[in-house]
Amino acid sequence: MKIPTSTYRIQFRNGMTFDRAAGLVPYMKRLGISHFYASPIFTATAGSTHGYDVTDANEIDPTIGGREGFERLSSALKEHGLGLILDIVPNHMAASLENAWWRDVVENGKESRYARHFDIDWNRRLTLPFLGDSFETVLEAGDISVKADPRTGKPALAYFESFYPLNPQTYTGREAEVLKISGKNDIASLHDQQSYRLMSWRDAPRELSYRRFFEITGLAGVRVEDGPVFDDTHRLILELVRSGKVDGLRVDHVDGLADPKSYLERLRQEAGPDCYITVEKILGEGEQIPADWPISGTTGYEFISALSDVLVDSDGIERLRSAYGEMTGNPADMAAELRKAKLLMADNNFAGEVSTLLKLALQIQEAEGKAAPLAEEKIKAALRELLVAFPVYRTYGTANGLPPESRQTLEKVVDTVRRGPNAPDEQALAYFERLLKGDVAGAAAADSTTFRIRFQQLTGPLMAKSVEDTLFFRQHAALALNEVGSEPLPRVHSLERFHAEMQTRLERQPDALSGTSTHDTKRGEDARARLYVLSEAPDLWAESVSRWREMNGSARQDLADGPAPEPEVEWMLYQALAGVWPTDLSLPDTAGLKALEERFVAYVEKALREAKLRTNWNGPNEAYEQAVISYARNLLSPQNSDFLEDFSHALRPFVRSGLVNSLSQSIIKLTAPGVPDIYQGSEGLDLSLVDPDNRREPDFAMLQQQLTEKEKLASAEEEEWQSGRLKQHVIATLLRLRQELPSLFRKGEYIPLEVVGKRAGNIAAFARADAEDALVVIVPRLVFNALNPALDVDPENRWAETEVVLPARLADHRYSDICTGTTIDPKDRIAVNWVFADHPFALLRT
In this structure, are 361 and 244 located in the same domain? Predict the structure, then answer.
């Protein structure tokens, strides 16, 4: 298997086509990338901005160039010696009439050849939750009629631009007669004869008859665990792999599958031993991917979380949380807030899925024929508590029960629930433990397996929507830690913890991707790096927010349900704005402020709705939203010059320290265990907000211009940091080194290095070493005070009296700085002040 030395993620659609991407290949080659990493390329719904709503898994989307365009990109990659990794989506497809398979299921119901391709409960009619109101209300309003489908000419139930095909058995031989139906009762009768039931989108959380992706009704779960379904959905994927045009696969949301291990084993068998395979999976605290999965690792969200151990001041983050609690008058109990968010999901957004599990549990109990069955209320309470208490995405039970690691996880969860303040009935809890372990025999065994799989397919979405898409938009003390893959509960951050995590990473998944920005992260890597700095100056930040709240007090509105924005949201607005503030924005720049305002306002609306407190996606509180958006617009109004000057001035030291953090995290990503993934444009500065902002196309022309052929790195002048040019050149230098020394970075030992002296706490140092080569990495951390001009620290002596201690195997070697070419012979200690003379970092190669 050829393991990438690095990957570069490109988002297709939104203007990005195969031909445009092919034009970027020479730039990627020059940057030092080994593998082009493509977002989904298969045909998706019209206007799709991401490609995860696949409508044809065996066609390359014509809107981005089709098969011909793909072949041109493939040729360009081969010409320059780059590999190709595809993002594939086995868990779901679009529940759209544009999807021929789904349309066939809608038309023919259980008799469709694709009826079992989708995860549908055929004990009832297929629910289609795409009406604006109930079927009866929509029918009464005259919005549903019988018309000929303009695409097929066949009779259909027409709802605005959608034409739902009628089952041929309900009209064959009398098409003309059916097309004349216009009476509401007759339309309702015809609707009742169909294999599907049209209903309001609002009823989906409770009444859906098919498994969906998270809570998106437009994405239907696929039963890829069935051999014929796997074959049908992977035909083109495997053709591209076997032809040598695709070198690797990234499996989207692997935890959504019924049996991830079996799926990955089949994929490995079909794709062959040389295909590089990674999976999108969120790892919980202390969790590792199962050792028996035949893959190279995850896509790297856990790496983002690990980086916070290097760049967050653990004491300061607690003071920041305290300041947030004092300002809002509501000190956060994160465990309680997490429980609230999970209960909201279980009782509302996923009520239908929970109800399905409850019915199954009752059926199994009845089938077992116990003398004293448990009351439904007790079973429901126990089920609810188990779902809410799950600390990881899921376990991996099959028809054979739970594997040992999953069994241990379940036992810990059950014990936590049993000892907790909301402990349900002990017998009910023991019943679910038995069901999930597979300790059920006889006629109930099959239903027990179904229950186990359904339960496991629910805990992941419930966790994701509770944490990433609810809690992280409610608790704003430290936005940098509200990231995909991060733990929701506060923890200690330490350099020692990071070193331990990297040693484990080298042991468990050395070939996994290491990301810092993705299309799903809550903010760009450089915005996050800047916001980490708040933990170093929590009191200064809190004082600034208090001042800004007072300056903008007249923009707040008092609504019937409270102030808008409330203090929590004000804190969030200032912190989010600090993260996204462009390094090159000079006041007064009216055009720049307007461009930033439009991006910021879109983020504010999403953040408010995701919080699900005073507004949400299903029932927007327009008065509240507009009041907060008006406040946000006022922040960036050129007329609000006093605030803008104060804000930009106060932000400067955070920006400077954030740029240092940015470079440190990039260097660590490119030298620590794992395969570094560069998300499009993030080789420059990535100050993006949550999607869709982070999916905007970067300025590739500027990036290509910045990356010159010069061997010497860009200078350490501040302008080079602020433009992102220094970051880009450091990345390019290290990417080329990775290509030169692939074994060192893939298999070389990870050695934490001790730092002693005056600024020991401001340095992170480690080495990668094998029998042939060694690289010593020294980067700054927690530098807010070290860079503070008010402290009158002589820059030339900023790092004086600080040394990196070399263990015996690294001592007494001559090292060369790969950035400057300077050679040193440090014996057993490296003086930081000396190696930071040209750049505030050192990359020393033997």
Answer: no
* Owning domain of residue 432: 336-467
Q: Which of 199, 206, 209, 45 is nearest to 135 (CA)?
A: 199
Q: Are 279 and 357 contained in the same domain?
A: no
Instruction: Confirm whether pTM is higher than 0.85.
Output: yes
Q: Is residue 85 part of a domain?
A: yes
Extract the runs of DSSP E, i.e. beta strands, from 670-729: 675-679
- What phi-psi label fits residue 297: left (phi over 0), alpha (psi between -120 and 50 degrees) or beta? left
Query: Of the candidates 299, 320, 346, which is a domain's last residue?
Result: 299
Task: State whether the Cα torsion 505-508-509-515 is positive or negative.
Answer: negative
The β-bridge partners of 204 are none
In a domain, 843, yes or no: yes
Closest CA to 257 of 233, 288, 284, 237: 233
**Residue whose C-alpha is closest to residue 16's, from 764, 696, 780, 808:** 696
Q: Are 401 and 259 in contact (CB under 8 A)?
A: no
Beta strands in 710-833 (DSSP E): 749-752, 754-757, 763-769, 774-780, 802-805, 815-817, 823-824, 829-831
pLDDT digits (tens, 9 = 90+) for 329-369: 988 889 999 999 999 999 999 999 999 999 999 999 999 88
Q: What is the largest CA-CA distance in the chain?
A: 94
* Per-residue model confidence as pLDDT tens digits over 174-200: 999 999 999 999 999 999 999 999 999
Q: Do residues 799 and 828 share a domain? A: yes
Tell me the CATH number at 131: 3.30.1590.10
In a domain, 79, yes or no: yes
Sorted by sequence, the CB contacts under 8 Å of residue 93 that are 6+ apart come out as: 53, 54, 55, 57, 99, 101, 102, 118, 219, 220, 222, 233
Sign of the CA dihedral running 10, 16, 17, 18: negative
| 286 and 211 share one domain | no
User: What is the residue whose two structure tokens read 């719904």?
Assistant: 45
Q: State the pairing for strand pair 675-679/513-514.
A: parallel
Pairing outcome for strands 54-60 and 42-44: antiparallel
Lowest mean pLDDT among 123-127, 323-327, 443-447, 802-806: 443-447
